[in-house]
Every structure is written in C-alpha cells, then in structure tokens.
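A quick aside before the break. I want you to see a complete sequence-to-structure record at least once, exactly as it would be stored in a machine-readable document. Don't worry about memorizing anything.
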Amino acid sequence: MLNGKGTLALVGSGEFLPLSQNLDQALLATLKEPPRVVVLPTASAPDGLGVAERWGKMGVDYFKGLGAQAEAVMVLSRQDASSSELAQRIASANLVYLSGGKPSYLVKTLRETLCWQAIRTVFEQGGVVAGCSAGAMALAGYLPGFGPGKPQPALGLAPKLVVIPHFDEIPKWLNGLFKYSTKRQRLTVVGVEGSTGLVGTGTIQTWQVVGRGGVTVFSPQGRKRYANGETIIL
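That is the input. The structure line, written in tokens, reads:
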C-alpha cells in the first residue's frame, strides 16, 4: 500500500535511455500541470568525482527532450539533504526522479531530512516520485537481505515491498533466495526488469506494469510474472 496521493514508479533499470521513453511519457501524462522535473543523482555520489554530475546532466537532457522543464538538484550528502534551499527546489517540482547507484547510501543520505520531506510533499500533493535501480530499492519498505542477513529499512514510500532491480539480468538460480527471504520475513519481493516500472497511485493497493519488460512478484503464496499493462494487487 502506498502512503500519499501521487504516483510512485519503481523502475528496474535504464533511466534516461530511449528504451524507457514510453514509461516516462506515461508518467508525465499523469500530471495535471506542465511537468517540472527534478533529477536527484544522489545514489551515484560514492562512485567517484563527476559521476553524479554526469547522471544529473543525462537526466535533465532526457526529460527536456520529452518536453518537460527539468533541473538536477545535487543532493550528494546529508548536509546537502538538510539544505532548505535544495528542499525548496525539490518541493517546487511535480516529478522527482531518483537515479541509480548505491541504495544504502541513498537511504542514509535522505532519511529524516528536509529534502526527503520535500520528496514526500511532492507525492502527497499528487505528483510523481520515480526511482530507478538503487532509487527504486530505496523508495521501498526495505532493502533486500538474503540468507542470514535481514532486510534493512529503506525510505518506506511503498512500505510493504522489497525491490530487486535489473531482474532480467539476474541468474535464475538466485530466485530461490528471493522466495526464501519472502517466506522468512513475510515481505513481498518484486523483481523489476529493465526499462519497466511498477507504477502505483494514491493509497490503493493496485499497481500496473508499464514498459517493455515485466515484474515478478514473490509472495508467501508463490511467484508470478506480470507483463506490460497487467494489474497487480499488493
């Protein structure tokens, strides 16, 4: 179940690439006002000098190409995330996009900060919050934990879910770990394929698969894959 009135998109991979255009155009189409996009490359900050800046520029160029107003908001540390100026820039948007990188770093950087509250405000006011790869993992209820490891709390915009991105790239033999973790922890694990989003709106429990691939759901009742356009009750 979602917490808010907006639209949440959990994307497997492929942010800012042509194969994801149909998905992102669908997200933009949900907005009632002209799109104002902010891109947060926060999760890539640990990957080296200039990496986050490159992702930010890619996102801005991509969304401008789709006809949206777009800017990168460089929230790269907890100090940045506590900035009222950066939070105001986020709050002025109606679509927030969290790109990929390190999910645990993204969670630690944003949790209980002004910028995270600004992201929640966008969602609560009917905007779109999208996360790709690490961004999708961080927006869920928990980060994955397999074997003896326990799932760690994430940002919780979709509190009952654990997201496995890049699912079409993961060896099939690992699927048993997802099933085991689901039964042991009684969480719903969703494997999201590339250029594909699990998209939900408001406080309802109904989600839709949007994009070129599918979403596999691991629940205590078993495993099922859903394709583009299909509805999932979670």
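Two observations worth writing down. The chain has one domain: 7-233. The mean pLDDT is 91. We'll return to this after the break.
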